[in-house]
Design goal:
Number of strands: 7
Structural class: alpha+beta
Distance between the termini: 34 Å
Oligomer: single chain
Order of helices and strands: HHHHEHEHEEEHEEHHHHHHHHHHH
Shape: globular
Largest sheet: 5 strands, mixed
Helix content: 55-70%
Strand content: 5-15%
């Protein structure tokens, strides 16, 4: 019973935050606070709980943990924003256009408070053709690349990890589905303390968040799903454009499945809006159960197979479907299968959800700079 209460109260608080409900969530009687704290930590929602849950209702040591995470998030994001303003100014003066992605951008535009959205690095999208110029300009200001990846160049600046993305998605089977130029050319200025940065419009933001959550994290990271929920409930999302864009990509089923999962997880009431995708809801709703089970630690072989069905459904092009079938034999896929079969129930909230979202650099910084 306490496990169900902890799980349901976790979602209740997150729903209240997403839907901006004024009343504070009331904890149920006999709530297992230790179990709840064990759910909150890997989901990285301690700052949200710190801001919403009545501190007199929770045990003092848990309140202290949440307040510590809130303070750390505020300090880190404040420092990240200051660094980002400086980098943006340098690149704008060199006529090199970039746009901020995901974590810090969503914290500013959707959360409305940078202390509520934990981040591990700063993601910046740039044109592939500007790669050498950006590296050269930043080097002239004493900032040199730490390492290069397939579609990224990583800088460590002010003890923060900056990831310059030359392609939005890293997996080869998705790289050509999104035109980075289209995203960068749609950027909007955002004035913040100390200067100006550039963000994406809500519709483009949703494209970035959905594709990243599905292609990179397989809908397993709670904070990414909260990002999607917050942006999808904004009134300035152009759903008709989103449907046409996803059809041309083609990523219609990926978008419909992801948004159906988020809608059902948080009870957002998006059903009518999702009709623009023209997909039957029942298969996606069934597959969403597989993603929910893994997210909340109630995984099984049946749920694993539902998720694989979802991945194949999202791969609309025959070539993409074939690549995905081949990828089922990758080590991480086999590890996921073993975890679904071998880990005994109940309630095994995945710590890998938090681990996926935190870089080794972030762990190092956290150790050096505790809250």
């Amino acid at each position: 019973m306490s496990q169900d209460q902890a799980e349901e109260f976790l979602l209740h608080v997150i729903r209240s935050f997403i839907l901006s409900r004024e009343a504070r969530p009331v904890p149920p009687p006999n709530l297992d606070w230790s179990r709840l704290a064990g759910c909150v930590a890997p989901c990285r929602v301690a700052p949200i709980f710190c801001s919403l849950v009545d501190k007199d209702a929770a045990p003092p040591h848990i309140v202290q943990e949440w307040e510590s995470e809130w303070a750390y998030t505020l300090a880190r994001n404040t420092r990240s924003l200051s660094t980002l303003v400086r980098i943006s100014r340098i690149l704008e003066e060199a006529r090199l256009e970039v746009v901020i992605l995901r974590g810090l951008s969503v914290a500013l535009t959707a959360y409305g408070d940078i202390s509520l959205r934990p981040t591990s690095d700063v993601d910046i999208l740039a044109r592939p053709a500007d790669r050498e110029a950006i590296i050269r300009v930043l080097a002239s200001h004493g900032m040199r690349p730490e390492r290069h990846r397939r579609c990224q160049t990583l800088f460590e600046v002010d003890e923060l990890l900056l990831e310059f993305h030359w392609s939005l998605l890293t997996p080869r089977r998705f790289q050509k589905t999104i035109d980075s130029e289209q995203l960068i050319s749609s950027r909007l200025p955002l004035d913040v303390a100390g200067g100006r940065i550039y963000r994406l419009p809500a519709t483009m933001d949703l494209i970035v968040l959905v594709t990243h959550a599905f292609a990179h994290h397989r809908l397993s990271v709670m904070i990414n799903l909260i990002d999607i929920a917050l942006v999808s409930t904004r009134p300035d999302v152009d759903w008709e454009y989103l449907a046409k864009w996803s059809q041309a990509a083609p990523l219609t089923r990926m978008f419909f499945l992801t948004l159906t999962f988020v809608d059902r997880l948080f009870n957002l009431g998006l059903g009518q809006r999702l009709e623009v995708f023209g997909c039957p809801p029942k298969p996606a709703e069934r597959i969403a159960e597989g993603y929910r089970a893994r997210l909340l630690g109630n995984d099984s072989l049946v749920h694993f197979l539902l998720r694989k069905r979802g991945v194949l459904m999202a791969a609309e092009h025959p070539c993409a479907k074939l690549k995905q079938v081949i990828r089922f034999f990758a080590k991480d896929e086999l590890d996921e299968l073993c975890a679904a079969i071998c880990t005994p129930p109940p309630m095994r909230l995945k710590h890998s959800a938090a681990k996926d979202a935190i870089t080794e650099n972030d762990k190092h910084l956290h150790a050096q700079n505790p809250p």
